[in-house]
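Researcher: Going back to the complex we discussed earlier. I've cleaned up the inputs and rechecked each line, so this should be the final set. Can you rerun the prediction on the complete assembly and write out the structure?
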Amino acid sequence: MSVLSYIEAIQLAMKEEMERDEKVFILGEDVGKRGGVFRATDGLYEQFGEKRVIDTPLAESAIVGVGIGAAMYGMIPIAEIQFADFILPAVNQIISEAAKLRYRSNNDWSSPITIRAPYGGGVHGALYHSQSMEAIFANQPGLKIVMPSSPRDAKGLLKAAIRDPDPVLFFEHKRAYRLLKEEVPETDELIPIGKANLVREGSDITVISYGLMLHYVKEIANELATEKEIDVHVLDLRTVYPLDQAAIIQAAKQTGKVLLVTEDNKEGSIISEVSAIIAEHCLFDLDAPIQRLAGPDVPAMPYAPTLEKEFMVNKDKIKQAMIDLALF
Amino acid sequence: MINHEDLQLTDDDVLEMYRLMLTARRFDERTWLLNRAGKIPFLVSCQGQEAQQVGAAYALDRERDYTAPYYRDFGVVLALGMTVKDLMMQAFAKAADPNSGGRQMPGHFGSKRLRMLSGSSPVTTQVPHAVGVGLACQMNNDQAISFVTLGEGSTNQGDFHEGANFAAVHKLPVIIMVENNQYAISVPLNKQVACEKISDRAIGYGMYGETIDGNNPLAVYQAIKKARDRALKGEGPSLIEAVSYRLTAHSSDDDDMTYRTQEEIDQAKEQDGLHTFRQYLVKKNILTDQIESEMEAAIKAEINQATEAAEKAPYPSVETLYDGVYQ
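Model: Rerun complete. Updated structure for the full complex:
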């Protein structure tokens, strides 16, 4: 065991997979010599060379589309989109092509590509370096969307994504890159995609979240246990599409009081779907209306610190929402 | 006209090329009849483009190379090993359609066995895919190339630009063949591009570009063969523009008399590659009356059998709706 940051865990996952299988390669902007603008591919260019860590032209649809083509040949591409906000030029390749390739070819062709992209705010990134993009892709059968909440999860989930036979969008919280550190096993740990993770058992309220927000939820749950004797049940979605419905239903029934947290804009978000699943299956188990804590429905968070802070879901907001629900 | 002997093509080769062109044409004509008879809901046509399609496919190593054909490429896929029966199964959306098991519209080709990438309806997405295959060929020292086609209107799409640029930067073994049939549905070439030739766009990417007579299968064969040699020598991709004319409406749902004249079509028919290549073969005494009538009869019989088989074949069963979303 060694202590790794979230981004070190991601780098290590790619390094190990590239050592394990020669077919694995990386393509994206600035991923080569520079080692990525966040340094996620640091050292990989030196270790594996420019043919396996490819600096591409600045063109996102080509990064994904060329990756899909190489995957069809039999390679295992890891495509990096520098910021999740810039994934939009590649949406046609992701939704019309990667997501539908297996289905439209009646299981003949497939696209085992992993598309990594840093998402999330609170880093003075303004409108176009702060967004959460997962909801755009979260009604596209054929895709999988993974959003890790810790270094250990980031490593195990990314390795599973690379080995997955279908396309996976892997959104990494850019604030988590250096904020989160924990012990990560040196073994070849794979964390299954499609399964939520019960991170804390509790009896008073259930909180369901993912990504960096889940980390905050865990911290506050521990605080509330000592400060207010509120016992919180915490479920980490890990995979936000397709959702682990059974785990969601079970977690909601556990306490009958559910708070859902996302950093994304509220309407049409991942937690909207989680809320619908609970509403469909848990009506008679609920003791309070399902609560959603999310970003406001403005286009994206502004640059000015006052406005960014107002937009962001933070620990204070989460704590208050949890106390309110416990007292309901 | 270029002589086939100068291209090291035998009489049998050119006769086979003509047979493939004629098969594509006759198949196309039959699907129009089937559509108008209410038996198949939709078709897209290849008429007027068979010469460039067969000429190009013939220049590939059909045992090794990868292709990403676009929706009019009936001539390409027939030359690569798709059968008339396969295509008729697709036309009828039957389970035995090898391209998609009846999931996609006609003209959406794909077969892993034939190394033919699966295509979709949003145009030009196949260009980056073909470039990705070229990248993989280069990474694996695979002596294969990647061949992709598209229409001239599609060269305005971002994916054309992004894919072509990527291929040129990394000197990938890719051939991009633009089948310029003068129309993007109803919009003529002069409202699609302001450059004189589509192949002029190659200059901006730093790749080889050439415009050829798409009605002449031998000219196309020659250009693609040379492009393939350059690709294998590490000289990078080529942009080949094959110029012809779309002789039918865009699809079975289009009425081309709303935007062009019969006189224009009649004039283009005189240049029709099927017609001019036939004349070449007759003049060379390769295509005799007897060979031609036997060929026509054999093609007709094949299409009849395929039609009958496809009409009788089962649709995909409803339970299969849920298959193949994920592995």
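Model: Worth noting: The longest strand of chain A covers residues 258-265.
Researcher: Good, that matches what I expected from the previous run.
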